[in-house]
């Protein structure tokens, strides 16, 4: 397959020339990349809002004169749940980015990032369950 002059190696080597040229595939890849970037932005908003809500809940508990240890455990659970949800949404974003980034090196890097995020999610979920069990035991 011969590519038009000026095309980059990597992404464009997977394009198939049709009667209308390469444009439709390029548009689709740009849309997928835009969606993945929007999801990345959504994760930032989720993290900031989740953190603010978690601290507001902890402050409310402290003002209600609840025990400090219980409040701290609840804060850790709340923040952990926000992080866990964010990591899971970022995995979706990584999968979409892998559709666009098709060189072996880029896909390999994304695969490592996804594996790390899955491991973090697993251990964070276990920690949250442990904290919730401790909190329930104290109540």
TrEMBL record:
What's the source species for this entry? Maioricimonas rarisocia
What keywords were assigned to this record? Membrane, Transmembrane, Transmembrane helix
Q: What is this protein called?
A: DUF1622 domain-containing protein
Extract the InterPro entries matched here: DUF1622
> Which parts pass through the membrane?
34-56
Source domain of life is: Bacteria
| Keyword check for Transmembrane | yes
Claim: Transmembrane is one of the keywords in the record: yes
